[in-house]
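Q: Hi! First time doing this. I have a protein sequence and I read that you can turn it into a structure. Is that right? Here it is:
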Amino acid sequence: MDVSVVIASFNTRDDLLAAIASCQAHTGGLETEIIVVDNGSTDGSVQMVRRRLPSVHLIENEENAGYTAACNQGMRGASGRYYLMLNSDAQLTAGCLQELVRVMDENPDIGSASPRLQFPGGGRQYAAGPFPRLWVRMLPVGVIRRIELAATDRFERSGDFYEVDYVFGACNMVRAEAVREVGMMDERIFMWCDDADWAKRMERAAYRRVIVSTAVCIHKVGASYGGVSAIRQNLQRSMSEFAYFRIHHGKPATFLLYLMRVVYSLLKVLVIGPFALLSAGHNRRISQALLMAWWRLRFHIVHAADILWRGPKPYRGEDLA
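A: Yes, that's right. Below is the predicted 3D structure, encoded as structure tokens:
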């Protein structure tokens, strides 16, 4: 078996159907299998796969076990030389799979590879990022984004592929041999930052991570979040980020990041609060900014013990209320 495609799905029936169809249409002569791990969807995804796609291996979870846990379930049942982690809102294009396999076959020290990602309309989408660094992540979010996007742009080189710190999980081909060496995804991270964690372990094992310039995947972005609210997404990302720093940088670094985030949130509540009162709730942007700052402040207080003292564990969006 050449490639085992693993798709974790949560309430993305139509996108899931398109993702599977793209895999079946673009095998390019490779021997492939498709494994769908459903995380307790309620939109008929499971019934659709059973009825219309009998060749797909379906694993059903009664509840949302998390992205990392679902991917690991898929890999445990996979038999390919390579595992392709494909988001349910992503679609392969012609030649994508073959190019990923070709580059990895020719370079046995590559542990993880992603194609170029594009939006459905054809616009460029980032497919990689720099490893999270403490001094960067302690800055305001707008500054963090500019610094990390600039770092990502500096990775890009001419040729078939170029090296990066870590590839995003939207369409990530990993070498089965590398997974056996460094381990599967860390299930203490529910989703987000899981790709950086995996790549960090691959780096320590001397496996390169690359973007294959000659391969393209279409990615919608956001559909695979399963309807999670913006606030819960924000808090879940934060918890995953804290887990990443605890795992790779220890408690002191995590404490510094935590302290800075508490200060930012408190300052935002104190500064935005009076403006929200003066507007009497009529300014939607101010009200939303205050709500986000309040929820972030509350999150840091309520989950201080989990972030700073207890070991990292997976958090669902509803756990963060």
